[in-house]
Amino acid sequence: MQPKHYDALLLASFGGPEGQEDVLPFLRNVTRGRGIPDERLEEVATHYRENGGVSPINAQNRALKAALEAELAERGIDMPVYWGNRNWDPYIPEILQEIYDAGHRRLLVLTTSAYSCYSSCRQYREDLGMALQSTGLEGKLEVDKIRQYFDHPGFVEPFYDGVVEGIKDVVAQLKAKDIDPNGAIEVLFATHSIPMTDAEAAGPRDLAAELKQSLGDDVNANDVYSAQHLAVAEEIFKRLDVAELGLENKPAWSLVYQSRSGAPHIPWLEPDINDAIEDLAKTGTKGVVVVPLGFVSDHMEVIWDLDTEAKETAEEQNLAFARTPTPGTDPQFVKGLVDLVCERHDVQHQSEQKAETLLGPWFDVCRPECCVKIMRDGTQRPTIGAVDSKVRSTLVKE
């Protein structure tokens, strides 16, 4: 995309409850249209209720918004930052109206999802497009979305730093127990599991096959969603210095999945992190380093699925355990996000699109049929192109 002058920046995120009374309404928003009864939602609600009914994601987004504002100001970029959610207040349609009422006409959107799949990218575009329609702003407010940034250095570097410190932590724990850490540690890169049909439809259709043909063994491209995570993990491990880690050789690593939901008969990406930890314990592993590679911040699924369940599983298996940080408001991450803004903005425009893996930089404008949603009956969700030019995507029929 050629650079443009944007009036404002929207930080778009998932949203989360702010109190006990918000938990069920929030979960109903998340699962709208799936016919899930409240009894089943209450099973997930316990994760929030044990933390006061408050999701940490909102406070983290407020902190990220403030950090973005500070970095933009530091660079002399006059660009107000707004924040809107898909599933809780402040909702995206209300924020778009607020942005328009403030006099802005060209909006750049940054989402808190780094990878490519329906829920991480296309669904945001659809929600933005439907918000333009519902508010009557279609044709009045121009909206462009920043590319997926899974391998941008601003996203990768904080994870690299965390992996180094996490391995050192587990090495120290094992040595304190007189256990030789060499060959005894595995690094588990964790991300959100998604249905296999969504994984197979992630990114442009047939891109995985194209990548396999053009890049060969340099890229694990069984599906684009997993390939992106694997590529970042490989980049991190390529840089590791065993001497710095206090080891003779680099530890083993693997990609694992978490937060599976939905009907048991529907295949999702595996292995589950808890199953992986139990299997590792049987094969002589003595410590695990868990890296929340699929997440921007420490929201509920990180705190519950990793800090609670995965940690408990490791303790039950008598394994040393360390969980590394998410990027959050790490200065490297914040600077990287503003670099992404400057890729599209005509103020302090950056013509170079940075990427740390062979897969990137990702597309500014999604290709046709990118990250389509596959329905339960195996058909593709129908699409229309009514506001394609406004959000750089096709929209689903409501």
Automatic annotation (TrEMBL):
Q: Which family does it belong to?
A: Belongs to the ferrochelatase family.
Positions that bind Fe-coproporphyrin III: S55, Y124
> What does the function comment of this entry state?
Involved in coproporphyrin-dependent heme b biosynthesis. Catalyzes the insertion of ferrous iron into coproporphyrin III to form Fe-coproporphyrin III.
* Involved pathway(s): Porphyrin-containing compound metabolism; protoheme biosynthesis
Tell me the protein's name.
Coproporphyrin III ferrochelatase
Its keywords, alphabetically, are:
Cytoplasm, Heme biosynthesis, Iron, Lyase, Metal-binding, Porphyrin biosynthesis
Task: State where the protein is found.
Answer: Cytoplasm
Kindly report, in one word, the top-level EC class recorded for this enzyme: lyase
Q: Which reaction does it catalyse?
A: Fe-coproporphyrin III + 2 H(+) = coproporphyrin III + Fe(2+)
Documented EC number(s): 4.99.1.9
Species assigned in the record: Micrococcoides hystricis
* Predominant location category: cytoplasm
Under SUPFAM superfamilies, the record lists: Chelatase
Q: Which Pfam families match?
A: Ferrochelatase
Asked if the keyword Transferase belongs to this entry, the reply reads no
User: Where does this protein hold Fe(2+)?
Assistant: H192, E301
